[in-house]
Automatic annotation (TrEMBL):
Residues 33-287 form the Protein kinase domain. The keyword Thylakoid does not apply. The keyword Acyltransferase does not apply. It comes from Quillaja saponaria (Soap bark tree). Its cofactor is Mn(2+). InterPro entries: Kinase-like_dom_sf (IPR011009), NAF/FISL_domain (IPR018451), NAF_dom (IPR004041), Prot_kinase_dom (IPR000719), Protein_kinase_ATP_BS (IPR017441), Ser/Thr_kinase_AS (IPR008271). GO terms for biological process: signal transduction. Its EC number is 2.7.11.1. This is non-specific serine/threonine protein kinase. It catalyses: L-seryl-[protein] + ATP = O-phospho-L-seryl-[protein] + ADP + H(+); L-threonyl-[protein] + ATP = O-phospho-L-threonyl-[protein] + ADP + H(+).
Length: 447
């Protein structure tokens, strides 16, 4: 049977209560973060409240023991959590600011949710129908966003839903999340995981399940809890509770409105094939009352990755000028992607040296993009950004001025599905760019 295996220090549990006021044994992290009280701990991680010494921003820092992760065989688990959190930029998901590492620990620097857990608010009493709807709307906005990027949470519950200083929802704890590359050839996920009271009936059947559909079931349980103040499926005997879940055996409290009863029944449909979808939820009359579409800026791999001190050559194009620190940072020595000695395959950076102008290089990139039917966005200050297969990959072309005549062309690639950009980058784009590579005339001196 599924168990709540996410027993590391969860951000949800961590951001609500300090443990005996304990202070971090490392008061200053990399000279950048001043660590404060211990907020929560688990089998291989601890979470601290911290402050950015430069900006004063409050953050939560999750310190993960490399030794315990390796010993527990959870390396892939931690890497996946980092990879997923780096992808997500939504107003109702907890933001991962950065990942730092030492020889013994990995540090997740995470948005601090001042309002604590939603669970703590519900435990004081049920919500009104309007307030339940407001939080459910925010939850579905975040969950729909995650699903559109091939991320399935698989452990949605009030303990993993935080509140910011404005009492808006923040979905946290992506440690049990799955991504598309974990789906088996039958099109389903098969890992048994989750929290018993929120687990979908098809997971209990052990025949595979759709990650999006089990998240919707959990959302249904959450909405029931918001309105009722207690769980729809609960029993001291775990097997009895599982039987209730499998049969969809629950009752509504008397104060539940007819429209809400109908809506929750569609969420808690034991048949995943007929269970309501995110798109159907958004168009449901009960859900749409007071609903406003969330607008946000996509921050995935963006122009800000190129901007810096600019070199003006008198034309419309400006290119970042490299200083000594920039050149050092191009080395792999400070790349934190290989936290366990192996780099992430979801991101890659290529660099070439060229005498050609940025306009000429962008022209070549544009030709490839048009031939391959890939979306291209150009920026005279930076280069070009290519996005394909409905956002499954992004390729960013950046220019850096090395000398008066030479530019470094940097090709940054980020994939949500490994291999999704292989054909375009390896077979089409790189051959064109390599033709523009600087080739020094005459023999190269040995010393």
């Amino acid at each position: 049977m599924p168990e709540d295996i996410n027993n590391n220090a969860t951000v949800g549990a961590a951001q609500s209560t300090a443990i005996n006021g304990e202070i971090s044994p490392v008061p200053n992290l990399f000279g950048k973060y001043e660590l404060g009280k211990l907020l929560g701990c688990g089998s291989f991680a601890k979470v601290y409240h911290a402050r950015n010494v430069n900006t004063g921003l409050s953050v939560a820092i999750k310190a993960v023991s490399k030794h315990k992760v390796l010993k527990g065989g959870l390396t892939a688990h931690v890497k996946r959590e980092i990879s997923i959190m780096r992808q997500l930029h939504h107003p109702y998901t907890v933001k991962l600011y950065e990942v730092l590492a030492t020889k013994t620990k990995i540090y997740f620097v995470i948005e601090f949710a001042k309002g604590g857990e939603l669970f703590a608010k519900i435990s004081k009493g049920r919500f009104s129908e309007d307030l339940s709807r407001r939080y459910f709307q925010q939850l579905i906005s975040a969950v729909g966003y995650c699903h559109s990027r091939g991320v399935f949470h698989r452990d949605l519950k009030p303990e993993n839903l935080l509140l910011d200083e404005n009492w808006n929802l923040k979905v946290s704890d992506f440690g049990l999340s799955a991504v598309n590359d974990q789906i088996r050839p039958d099109g389903l996920l098969h890992t048994l995981c989750g929290t018993p009271a929120y687990v979908a009936p098809e997971i209990l059947g052990k025949k595979g399940y759709d990650g999006a559909k089990v998240d919707i079931w959990s959302c249904g349980v959450i909405l029931y809890v918001l309105n009722a103040g207690y769980l729809p499926f609960n029993d001291p005997n775990l097997m009895v509770m599982y039987r209730k879940i499998y049969k969809g055996d629950f009752r509504f409290p008397k104060w539940t409105s007819p429209d809400l009863r109908r809506f929750v029944s569609r969420l808690l449909d034991t048949n995943p094939e007929t269970r309501i979808t995110v798109d159907e939820i958004i168009h449901d009359p009960w859900f749409r009352q007071g609903y406003q579409e969330v607008e946000f800026h996509k921050e995935e791999l963006d122009w800000k990755d190129c901007y810096g001190k600019e070199y003006d050559d008198g034309n419309d194009t400006t290119t970042k000028t490299l200083n000594a620190f920039d050149l050092i940072s191009f080395s792999s020595g400070i790349d934190l992607s290989g936290l366990f000695g192996r780099s992430e395959v979801s991101e890659r950076v290529e660099r070439i040296l060229s005498e050609e102008s940025p306009e000429t290089i962008i022209g070549k990139v544009e030709e490839v993009a048009k031939a391959e039917n890939v979306t291209i966005e150009k920026d005279c200050r930076c280069g070009a950004k290519l996005e394909g297969q409905h956002g499954k990959f992004i390729i960013l072309i950046c220019f850096y001025r090395l000398t008066e005549k030479l530019n470094i062309v940097e090709i940054k690639k980020r994939e949500r599905e490994v291999g999704s950009s292989r054909h375009l980058l390896k077979d089409k784009l790189m051959p064109q760019l390599l033709e523009l590579t600087y080739k020094p005339e005459g023999p190269v001196p040995c010393n």
